[in-house]
Write a structure and sequence with these properties.
The complex is a heterodimer of chains A (110) and B (113).
Chain A lengths: L3 E3 L2 E5 L4 E7 L6 E7 L5 E8 L4 E4 L2 E6 L4 E6 L8 E8 L5 E3 L3 E6 L1
Parallel strand pairs in A: 2-11
Antiparallel strand pairs in A: 1-3, 3-8, 4-5, 4-9, 6-7, 7-8, 9-10, 9-11
Chain B lengths: L4 E3 L2 E4 L5 E6 L6 E7 L6 E7 L2 E5 L6 E5 L5 E5 L8 E8 L8 E2 L3 E5 L1
Parallel strand pairs in B: 2-11
Antiparallel strand pairs in B: 1-3, 3-8, 4-5, 4-9, 5-6, 7-8, 9-10, 9-11
Classes of the chains: A mainly beta (110), B mainly beta (113).
Chain lengths: 110, 113
């Protein structure tokens, strides 16, 4: 079946790198996404990667995809206090239905 | 360029009532999907509308229904509300069904008393 799993909590110091990990089960996934949710807000699309790619970099964000192990990671360089939020990993097939993980709460300490 | 807009932002209902939530997609988008996010959980897919038809449906009872209008906006209706329907309801829009990434609104917080 379809399932996405993430660790629930990550704490880092300001200026360090953060790495948030995700595993998924659906081998037919076409796109994999990272969304950010701040308190009381909706989901902000951070970045996404097509399933035939290994890596994508966008400013401070780097996404790595290991399709063999069905493992996705999001690295945030030079983490700032404004990066404190819940980060969701999601997968979709080409039908567009998104399957989300439970979310990883990122705490950034000054 | 307006993003996805949802109304109302907050709503309080009692058990057994009915509710309608509204969504306007991002400019240029023609597909609307609805998700339910319970407290502390990831969003769960309810259904997707494209060309005014329900194209996919998640594991939700038929108390949950929807509609898409010719201008691509959408409504989510929930009948016979239960306490467990309390959640953040998120609307997402995209272009051409699953081909492009989905952009989310800020959601409607529904509380059932």
């Amino acid at each position: 079946g379809e399932d996405v799993e993430q660790s629930l909590f990550l704490s880092v110091r300001e200026g360090d790198s953060s790495v948030i990990n995700c595993t998924y089960t659906d081998s037919s996934s076409t796109y994999l996404y990272w969304y950010k949710q701040e308190p009381g807000a909706g989901l902000q699309l951070l970045t996404y990667i097509f399933s035939n790619m290994d890596m994508k970099q966008d400013q401070r964000l780097t996404v790595l995809l290991n399709k063999k192990d069905k493992h996705l990671s999001l690295r945030i360089a030079d983490t700032q206090t404004g990066d404190s939020a819940i980060y969701f990993c999601a997968e979709s097939s080409n039908t567009g239905k998104l399957i989300f993980g439970q979310g990883t709460t990122l705490q950034v300490k000054p | 360029d307006a993003g996805v807009t949802q109304s109302p932002t907050h709503l309080i209902k009692t058990r057994g009532q009915q509710v309608t939530l509204r969504c306007s997609p991002k400019s240029g988008h023609d597909t609307v999907s609805w998700y339910q996010q319970a407290l502390g959980q990831g969003p769960q897919f309810i259904f997707q509308y494209y060309e005014e038809e329900e194209r996919q449906r998640g594991n939700f009872p038929d108390r949950f229904s929807g509609h898409q209008f010719p201008n691509y906006s959408s409504e989510l209706n929930v009948n016979a509300l239960l306490l467990g329907d309390s959640a953040l309801y998120l609307c997402a829009s995209s272009f051409r069904s699953g081909v492009q990434p989905q952009h989310f609104g800020d959601g409607t917080r529904l509380s059932i008393l």
